[in-house]
Write a structure and sequence with these properties.
The protein has 240 residues and is α/β, with parallel strands linked by helices. It is built from 10 helices and 10 strands. The site of adenosine-5'-triphosphate has 13 residues, from strand 2 and helix 1. Pfam families: ABC_tran.
Length: 240
Amino acid sequence: MTGKTLLDIRGVHTFYGNIQALNGVDVTVNDGEIVALIGANGAGKSTLMMTIFGAPRARSGKIVFAGTDITQLPTHEIARLRIAQSPEGRRIFPRMTVLENLQMGASLDKMKHFDEDVEKVFVLFPRLKERIDQRGGTLSGGEQQMLSIGRALMARPKLLLLDEPSLGLAPLVVKQIFDAIRELNRTQGLTVFLVEQNAFGALKLATRGYVMVNGNVTMSGTGKQLLADPDVRAAYLEGG
Ligand code: ATP
């Protein structure tokens, strides 16, 4: 079941110098939901993810997480409130082993739960257990994505942000990743906000979705509603 508002983004404007990337974005993520943000290349999806972490910072508007205004907080303080991300491009540490990468995700106060948390990651992604001593850079793209999500989970997040988890992966691997996200949400009640160019997969997975065009949210609805919407179908689902 989904509950009260966990993340509330209101009227957010973000700029890179003079370039306006977000133009008054409103997005809400409720406890227990999987929310998908879809949109074309350059629409501003990654910028929104990064703005949540305060880099770049919103020039105006407000971002509230679990009742705390995080709009002006430094990134490390935002992370401490237990928002974790798997960023665009995964950003795993290529020279470190799988286990060391997972250690990097656990903050010092989480080290006492380390074995338990690592085991949970390995239950979700058994492939990572098989590769435990392998360096991150030698993993396949799908395994690197699993590691990136696993590392984020080590922070015991209340909210997991995923930037294009399916990018560049084969369909079977995309399914494994999406199944794992669904499983995390179903069994642990983890709230997930994901950005995707794979609109079909993301909207099938999501409780609710938003469509972003040129730095604005132009449409929102349940995953099912958006999948059935003729404009969404024409722009993002057909021939894609
Ligand atoms: P993609 O799927 O390609 O990552 P996106 O929807 O995530 O697309 P953003 O990466 O957020 O879009 O980009 C939004 C806009 O901001 C684009 O016009 C982009 O060119 C611009 N932009 C992004 N990063 C920067 C930057 N570091 N400096 C200047 N402009 C940027």
